[in-house]
């Protein structure tokens, strides 16, 4: 399986508000280094650099004004003489207005953020757009005949919706790639999200759509971030009704419960017969992940890959979360090797 990778991810190393304190993000550059090192040490396949794409490709799933905000936020923030990471500090909850974009950067940050885990630094935009380009390049490879590809994205993307960032995510790499698949002529695409956290952004982007199915296994939002989306009764709306499937699972879920839900999820996707599957590959379901609460072990990630291969469709794996740095390389690559061995 080929891997799409770029060093540009290093340009983004930010801080987050956590437990009431500003701390270095769990989502750090060493994550991608660890995964790339494992890709190379097992000889997974060729490692290629991303192609360049125009921002109009991102605007297929994000609003124009949001993409423009991401591109200009650091310049607007630093023009005020501020040197620390840009973080939001006010949000347009409930009856506050979000139709008018404030002129001040503090207002814009609040409008376009769902939490305080998405700081913007001098290098963030370059890292973010390159991350999306990795996913687009991987999808282009599928269109050119590869059965699978791995986009080693960093920052991740699945919490980012049409018009907001959150949970370390800015552009929704998986959704951008899935949309590119449809724009390239596919009739149907599915996104399978196996990150511990619900992919609220991807769900939101495709919620009203029948040509993109979203299926997610995750920690129950009653207990886990992102708290405000990911319940079982969210099944799509309008033309998209019946094309959104959530599998919220309790703290402590291990392979027995997880494998059963994943098998069901993959049967649902197979019945949909998508032209391709985009896998939002988070490995924070690992038992030692520092911010999550499932109990998967190293070899369970091989089983995830085998089960996904059972769908029988081409797959683009897009890296999302996973924070136990020592094991995330093994676990991410185990999914890919399991997929390859079983297909
Ligand atoms: C991003 B990805 C929970 C803190 C949650 C944000 C988590 C973002 C996860 N104690 N902080 O889905 O892995
Ligand atoms: Zn996660």
Would you mind describing this structure in some detail?
Helix 8 (298-309) packs parallel to helix 9. Helix content is 35%, strand content 14%. By secondary structure, it is of the alpha/beta class. The protein has a single domain (2-62, 122-342), classed as Histone deacetylase domain (Arginase, Chain A, 3-Layer(aba) Sandwich). It has an 8-stranded parallel beta sheet, sandwiched between helices. A two-stranded antiparallel ribbon has the order 2-3. The model has no long low-confidence stretch (mean pLDDT 98). Residues 117, 156, 159, 167-168, 195, 197, 225, 282, 284, 291, 320-321 line the site of {5-[(3-aminopropyl)amino]pentyl}boronic acid.
Indicate the overall shape. Answer: globular
Mean pLDDT: 98
**How much of the polypeptide forms β-strand, as a percent range?**
5-15%
| Main beta-sheet annotation | 8 strands, parallel
Write the layout of secondary structure elements.
Layout (H helix, E strand, L loop, with lengths): L1 E3 L10 E4 L2 E4 L4 H13 L5 E2 L15 H15 L26 H7 L12 H20 L4 E4 L21 H11 L5 E5 L6 H7 L5 E8 L24 E6 L5 H18 L3 E6 L16 H12 L5 E5 L5 H18 L1
Parallel strand pairs: 1-4, 1-5, 5-10, 6-7, 6-9, 7-8, 9-10
Antiparallel strand pairs: 2-3
Helix pairs in contact: 1-9, 2-3, 4-5, 7-8, 8-9
């Amino acid at each position: 399986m080929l891997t799409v990778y770029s060093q540009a991810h290093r340009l983004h190393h930010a801080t987050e508000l956590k437990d009431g304190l500003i701390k270095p993000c769990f989502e750090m550059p060493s994550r991608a280094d660890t995964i790339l090192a494992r890709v190379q040490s097992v000889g997974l396949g060729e490692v290629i650099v991303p192609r360049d794409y125009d921002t109009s490709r991102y605007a297929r799933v994000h609003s124009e004004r949001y993409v423009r905000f991401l591109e200009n936020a650091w310049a607007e923030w630093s023009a005020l003489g501020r040197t620390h990471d840009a973080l939001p500090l006010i949000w347009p909850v409930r009856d506050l207005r979000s139709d008018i974009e404030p002129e001040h950067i503090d207002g814009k940050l609040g409008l376009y953020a769902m939490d305080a885990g998405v700081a913007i630094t001098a290098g963030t935009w370059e890292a973010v757009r390159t991350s999306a380009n990795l996913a687009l390049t991987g999808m282009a490879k599928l269109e050119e005949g590869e059965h699978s590809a791995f986009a080693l994205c960093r920052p991740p993307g699945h919490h980012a919706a049409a018009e907001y960032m959150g949970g370390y995510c800015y552009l929704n790499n998986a959704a951008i790639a899935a949309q590119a698949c449809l724009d390239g002529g596919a009739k149907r695409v599915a996104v399978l999200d196996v990150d511990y956290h619900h992919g609220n952004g991807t769900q939101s982007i495709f919620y009203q759509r029948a040509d993109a199915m979203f299926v997610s296994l995750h920690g129950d939002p009653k207990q886990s971030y992102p708290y405000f989306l990911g319940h079982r009764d969210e099944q799509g709306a309008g033309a998209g009704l019946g094309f959104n499937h959530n599998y919220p699972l309790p703290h402590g879920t291990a392979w027995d419960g997880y494998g059963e839900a994943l098998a069901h999820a993959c049967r649902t996707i197979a019945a949909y017969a998508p032209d391709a599957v985009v896998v939002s590959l988070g490995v924070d379901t690992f038992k030692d992940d520092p911010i999550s609460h499932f109990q998967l072990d190293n070899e369970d990630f091989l089983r995830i890959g085998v089960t996904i291969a059972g769908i029988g469709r081409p797959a683009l794996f897009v890296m999302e979360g996973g924070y136990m740095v020592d094991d995330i390389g093994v676990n991410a690559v185990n999914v890919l090797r399991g997929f390859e061995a079983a297909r």
